[in-house]
Predict the 3D structure of the following.
Amino acid sequence: MKKLLSIMMAIVMLCTMTAIAVAEDDDWITLRVEAYDRSIAGFNVEDCMQLRYAQENFGDPNHIKIVFVPASRWDEGTLLTQWYASDTCPDLCLTYSGDLVNQMIAEEGIWQLDDLLAEYGQDLVAFLGAESLMPFGQQNGIQWFIPARRLNVANVGNFIRADWLAALNMEKPTDIEGFTAYLYAAKDANLGGEHTVPMHLDLYEANPLYNVVRITDAFLDFTQITEEDWFAYAGYHELLPGTKEAYRWLNQLYNDGVIYENFFLDNATEQDSFLVNGYFGYFTMQPDQPWRTDKNYEIELETNVPGASWTSVNCFKNESNGKYLHDIYAANGLSIIIPKTTDEETAIAAIKYMNWMAQPENMFFLQNGIEGINYLEVTADGIPTNVQSADNVPDENKMHAGDICFISNGLYYGSDEKNALGIALGFPAQYSAEIAQSYVDAYIDAWTQTSFTVPIQASVDYGAEVQSKEAKFLTDVITCAPADFDAVYDAAVEEIIAAGADKIIEEQRGAYLDGNYRGTFPGM
Amino acid sequence: MSTRAIKSAPKKQNPFLRDWRLYLMLVLPIAFYIIFCYKPMTGIVIAFQNYNMKKGMTGSEWVGLANFEFVMSQKSFSTALGNTLLLNVMGLVAGFPVPIILAILLNEIRATGFKRVSQTILYLPHFLSWIIIGGMVLAIFSPTTGVVNSLLMKWGWIDSNIPFLTDGWNWRILYTLVGVWQSMGWGTILYLSAITGINMELFEAAKIDGANKLQQIWHVTLPGIRGTIVILLILNIGQMMNISFDKPQVLGNPKIQEFGDVLSTYVYRVAFPNGSVGNFARSTAIGLFQSVVGLILITSANFVTNRLGEEGIW
């Protein structure tokens, strides 16, 4: 009896498998597309509204089954490296890691896209701009990858507490001196209660000086910095003339209890809670960060501390050139590649998919969703407004504009003016003025971030070591006793150089002298 | 089992046929080792290559010992190697005797209920992830806000904070003790079962001879579990070059980098640098180096043990 049963089971299974095989065996192909997963509660990347729309409007008519392959946004480089090494890449991959793309180009592990784009990607190229964006993806005249178009290149937002300024009867500071006075006054008045720590400072391990460099750049001595040095030291501003005084200033602030004591103990969640509980008087992030719908520091702060509010400040004035330096992104966003493991038919489908995505009505849906659910109204200019935050949208309608519609980094409405308008309309209306001001500040004396169009081998060899020494540098020079500062600073700089920073800088200098660089020099 | 063996011996039955169920049970562990330990071992060839992910293991260019030379010329590598050995030795010295003592103590507890509760409480930390333990350590030992420092300050026992987490040697000691605390309960399991295996008649005989509790422990319990102790010691010595990744990563901070950077965190940085391309060949080279030294250590420890008249692993 048992035997009979198991034989029957086997037959049933065999039949099912043949049935599946038969169903797949026609002219349909599967297109696997990488999709960033940001763990938004209730949002299932593998079965989302945007995927259903793409399947219905692009997949079904073309006999292409679209599959989204989720990749954690925070580990995407590592994941893609693993996929690439094991030949299991999705057919359409995204990455922010320029080094990784450079390596794939060197190994010829990805498709050359010139012919495919010419035949199947005209709308895509038109959207990105054959002259403006496409060259970012070229090396030696070959189009290796597709650079996403970054609409909003602002990067730096500095925020202080509007209510603290009022309580202290102070104007918004406009230079380091005024900013320092604000911090000490807030500390003395204990404006955030007994836990008051006027200055937030973050040690982001992946890039330890990422935030602090925005402040220390105000101390750079541009009378001693040539354009060549600027590009050679890209990413290593702590080794440029003038920054020692910046760290001496931070060291004093730390020793006077103005900076959070445990900033280096890697506990970002704790600092995050301090931010919304009103203990901090300053922090720096993206220009729209306090008002974002996924994590709204402003609303949480207002809830916890009635009357409290963040406001943008523009106070890091460089005394040597009189500029308020703000770095901005280059015009390209993430890099889109088609790995060599994808066959030609699927590669064509991938290009067609992005070409479809570039058409205005499709992009509008993928970025904005459905009127009445994801946004409530449309302005006379055709820009969605009253955009709903994720928790106000039913799970089946949840979406992420940038991650799925990846050819555009930022919401696109057809012109620069409309795009700028769209940014402010994407937030709750009462904050529009603050956000607009923050963006104005972010573009003052802006300089474009440096990138190199050739691989910097020393950066691959020594970058991670230098990075770990930078974390130690930041911790040591800020937390040491003021009397020891000079000795600690010199030793810490020496360690960064010994870990290989000098080799990276020299190679970057060579790349600059050969003209293989992008970006701008703020200068005098 | 023994009677059965005697009975079936004259029939000269094939042992595989006789004990096929036992061999069947062996299939899974053997498959595990083949799939996860032996098959990946072919990958060590990339330690000697300029590994190109597209050309793979067979197509990449051979570079001899260049990867080893690069890694070993790095100052961070020697720091990480030294720290790995030092932290492991500290862990062994402080941590090895603790489970033995605990096991003996637990064995002496007569009240079954109390014994079970104590055992459970002792095992508990083993099941906590290092992320959680890291959070606890931060809450307890932070410079100003930590429980210990704030209490000591309140009582007026100290004038300034004790830098548990930010002073190199303090951190090493804390790292060791936290490790001992986390693993001591779990470590008692093997010893407890070894103690259970000691013939009860030996204890009775000792009692009749007038041995008190301490003498019984010294002359019966400890010799009874000596074999287990020796084998675990050899195995531990073989692990001297290995260090877990999560524990130093979670407990460490940039301030004590010189004291806390170890091979596992170093390998991770080499293989998966943030926002950059990893170098699998170099990290494989470090891994291979670790394994070879580990093999030498375990072989020597076993050799010495056999020479001293104890029973080694082989």
Observations:
- Chain A touches chain B through 43 residues (CB under 8 Å).
